[in-house]
Write a structure and sequence with these properties.
With about 325 residues, this protein is α/β, with parallel strands linked by helices. Helices cover about 25% and strands about 20% of the residues. It is built from 10 helices and 15 strands. The strands form 4 sheets. The chain has a 7-stranded mixed β-sheet with strand order 11-12-13-10-9-14-15, sandwiched between helices. A 4-stranded mixed β-sheet has the order 2-4-5-6, covered by helices on one side. Bound molecules: zinc ion (ZN) (2 copies).
Length: about 325
Amino acid sequence: MEIRCRCGDTCIRPISKALKDIELFYKPCNDCKTEKIKKFSPLAEQINLDEIDNHFGSCKCGKRHLDIVISHVLKVMMDEGIKDKKASLRNACVPLVTPGYPTDSIPYLPKDSLVILSNEVDKGCAETIVKEVGEVKGVLKGDLRNTVGIKDSDSNPHVYELLAGCDLRCDIIQTPYGALGIYKYQREIHIEFPKVESPKIEILNKALKYCDRPAVLDCTCGPGTLGIACLKAGARKVVFNDIWNPAIETTLINLEVNGFPVKLSGSEEELIASGDKFEVYCMDIRELANCLDETFDICIIDTFPGVDTTEFVEAAGKLGKKVVVI
Ligand SMILES: [Zn+2]
Ligand SMILES: [Zn+2]
């Protein structure tokens, strides 16, 4: 399958390349400036915003400290009248670095390595941010407290609004079977902040120990993280399913970039795509049972936080021996 970012640009790269230099990606060079900015004090009282080039100029390595980048974003928001002169870095916006990777110090960002989320920006301001702040590749309007996606077929999906640039991000996820790169259009897929060890992967790892080369049904696969981890772990087959179309779109990208070539099925209605050891569907889990005539060793259910999983577990119970709610 040929893959290309919706924005038409080269945002999607093979994961092996991204992983190669990831340790150095967010590290400063010897010449990088360290500017201490207090998060709770007004920015305008700490640096002279009329002389921004003194503060905001990039190092010759092309990177700037995250706080400097957010200060620059805040300066644009003040100029555009979105924030007042007393605004501080705290609550300026939610920074989502890409690739998302746990670092032990605050990252220094290169070009196009940040998507920001704000409830206050408008389109004009967002376009100026993307134009003037080189590290920012996309601006989303929305509230972090509202999870994006769809809970089940009975509810309406919630998405953030893309105001400017591109919102495709990649999260690097460590698993016992190797690191995965998981791409997502952040306006449509819930936000996960990078952790050294993913609790979801730990639960999955325990479940996989019950069975050698299992057949796995990932009932609510999202961008494909857990199912792809199963393929990496040596599952003999994985069926991916999600009712949310954008989740399936990114599952296909993520299979491909993590080394599992995808063949789109085209004519058949229910099967979206398949590959050497996997199939991909986009259905309500309650209906999926009717079109699969095989039994799985493990069924994974990973829903929105707080969603009642009773019906999911019941439906998955018809398809598999062991149902794991993550
Ligand atoms: Zn893009
Ligand atoms: Zn530098």
